[in-house]
Each structure stands twice: as structure tokens, then as C-alpha cells.
Amino acid sequence: MDYSQRMNMIEMFTDPPEYRPPATVEEMAGSVDYPNLNSQQYRMTRKTNAPTALNPCLELAARNSAGQVILVGNNYMGRRWESSFYGWENAADVPDQSKACFKRQCRYSITALQFTQDPNLFLLGSDKGSVELWSTRNPARGDGYSLYQVDVQSEHIEAVSAMDLFHGDENKLVTGSHDGCIKVWLYGADLASITTMTNAHTDEITALTTNRNELSTFASTSLDRSALLWDLRKPRPATALFAKHQFAFTTAYWTTTDEANGIVALGDAAGSVHFVDTRQPNVFLHSAKVFNKKIHKISFDGTRFAVLGNTNRAKFYEGGQFDLLHESTPPAPDYLRDVLWDKPAEGQMGACWLVGWNTFVRRVEF
Fold first, then answer.
1. Among 43, 75, 86, 108, which is most buried by a count of CB atoms within 10 Å?
2. What's the CA gap between 314 and 123, in Å, rounded?
3. Domains, the chain, ordered by start
4. In angstroms, rounded to a whole number, what is the distance separating the alpha carbons of residues 45 and 141?
5. How far apart are CA 334 and CA 296, in angstroms?
């Protein structure tokens, strides 16, 4: 082979010296010599220093042991999906953006949010597959709030779709993604992935819920119509909680002994909620049709629990027999996405904050 005749690929794809496209918006407006520069013009004219604003599609809410609240809002209306999160000292100030203690704009969608056992640390999952550990304050940085990112790890191939914490002495969490992968992490001064189940499910993982009475057991649900029990102490950690359901499971909540004696509540895409005893898998103890659209979230407060779907209403029930206590009226202007339980006023059974799209935050008592 005559190597002197080979093509220099680097030289071939290098911009020639005479290629000098407009460098400013003003030059580009008067130039006709360099067409097809639409993306460059968009980057130049885009407001990169726009003030941080809470995006209207409120998706996630979390409150720590000190009563501080974080709301996550995603923006699905622009050319690029973005997000923002705001933090308040207490729920009574939400969603007044002028009273926020900290805020941050992100150039990706936030898909999961959890406060850790340390009230000054919280975790985020994103649609780019990253898990982030954030701190709201640190004595080394002085008094008051000082928001900063402690660590970020991008180990999921697809978007993080579920997250939950293990409750115990060890700082451990579990995450799931759209590609069916589950990862177990340790967090503290940084984030470290310690266990990976690559093919945990054959479709998107929709929910992860840990057993708060055990340090190594949790349940997962997926669009593959299965719910699994996991015990990280076993060499083969997964067993079926409910296999081959008629519809995809969309959410899950592992109750405590004080709530429903350790029952796992499962929501499905047909709008029904089912209770399953972990000691008797593949059998629904109780089932109820709650909405005509898929169940989005199940949240317990003692023996009472709230159910949110792809609707603008929330329904509140008592105990395992699905006794309807209350239905939120008037309905929200759009989807309800999350719930924060609160202490009820005198004479009331329960109270919570409902969070939804169109920057909807409202306290409900029943």
C-alpha cells in the first residue's frame, strides 16, 4: 500500500481558514453568505441568564424532618425540556417564590426527589440517567442556606424513573430506570453504586418502595405487568410479589405496621388499587376501582391514604377496606402529581397539601 496516497481525514474535515461565519447576532442578520445557521442563531438569541422561575408543571414534593419543603417543576412546553426546584422553610410559604430559601434551574427534567435522613441533604434523579446528591446548608459554609451539589453520578443508561431510601443506620438508596435496571447506592460524602441488577424487569420500572422495618428488602413494579420482592441478603434476591397482572403496575407503597401491617399497595394502569400481603404473593387481598385512568401515586398517613391518578382529583380512604373519606373538590385545574401530609386542625381527621400542574398547591382537610 502506498501510504503517500492515503487521505488525511483530519485535514479533510477541518474548517478551511477562509470559513469565517458571523460571530454575533447583528452580523448574522446582515449576512447572506452563510445559510443554514438556524441552530447557531438560536443559541445566540436564547436568554442564558434568564431569572430562575419555578416551572408550572409541579411534579414532585418532599418535606424533611425539620418541616422544610422542596417542590420540583418541569417545563414541557419549550424546545428543550427543563426543570427547576425551589425550597421553603415551611409548607405555609409554598408556592410564594419570593419566600423561597433556595432555588436552582436545571437543563434537564427531574424525575425523582427524596430528602435523606439528614435534613440538610436531598437526592434527585433525572431523565438523563443521573443521580445527584445536594446539600442545603453546611456549618463549614456559615449560617443559613448554602445550596451546593455534593456529588453526581450518571450510571443509568436511560432516565431514572423511581427512587426510594432505606431507613436505618446505613445511608442507602435504590433507583430504577426506563431500561429495567435497578441500582443500590450508598450516599454520604459522595455517591457510590454498590449493586446493579441490569435486567431486573423487562420494561420500564415505575416504582420502588422499601420496607421501613428491614434494611435490605424492597418492592419494584414495572410496565411488564409484574411486581417483585427483593432481598439483598440472598444470592438470588428477587421473588414474585404479583406476576402476570392484566395491566401494567404504575406505582407502589410498602406500608408500615402502624399503617396497614406491612401490606404493599399497588396501583395499575387501569385505575385500580390492590393490596398484597408479602407472605401471600400473587393474591390480591383487596382491590378497588378508584379512577378511570392510571394510578399515579399512593401515599399513606397512618391508616388513611390518598390516591392520585392521571386526573385532577384526589381520593382519600380509610383502612384496608377502601372506605372513602373524602374526594378533593373543587378539582385542580390539571393533573395532581404529589401529596404532602400535614397535621390536621382540631375536629378534622386528616390534612395534606396537594401539588399539581399549573403551579397548583392547596391544603385539603377532611
1. 86
2. 26
3. 40-365 (2.130.10.10)
4. 36
5. 14
352 DSSP β-pair partners:
341, 364
Peptide bond between residue 139 and the one before it cis (omega within 30 degrees of 0) = no
Q: CB–CB of 223/206 below 8 Å?
A: yes
* pLDDT at site 246: 95
Phi-psi category of residue 149: left, alpha or beta, with phi > 0 → left and psi -120 to 50 → alpha: beta
| Residue 42 main-chain phi, psi, to 5 deg | -60, -45
| Residue 260: C-alpha distances to residues 214, 302, 321, 322 (Å) | 16, 8, 11, 12
Contacts of 71 (CB under 8 A, 6+ apart): 54, 58, 60, 61, 85, 86, 88, 94, 95, 355, 361
Q: What is the pTM of this model?
A: 0.85
**Runs of H (alpha helix) within the chain:** 9-12, 25-29, 38-45, 257-260
Residue 230 grid coordinates:
427483593
Q: Which residues of 292-304 are buried (b: 16+ CB within 10 A; e: fewer)?
A: eebbbbbbbbeeb
Rounded to 5 degrees, φ, ψ at 122 are -140, 160
How many angstroms separate the CA atoms of 183 and 273, rounded? 26
Determine which of 4-13, 93-102, 118-127, 165-174 has the lowest per-residue pLDDT on average: 4-13
Question: Cα(286)–Cα(61) distance, rounded to whole angstroms?
Answer: 28
* Rounded Cα distance, 226 and 259, in Å: 24
Bond before 16 cis per omega within 30 degrees? no
Q: Which amino acid is at 101?
A: C
Q: How confident is the model at residue 255 (pLDDT cuts 50, 70, 90)?
A: very high
Identify the H or E element spanning 299: strand 295-301
Q: What is the mean pLDDT of residues 68-92?
A: 91
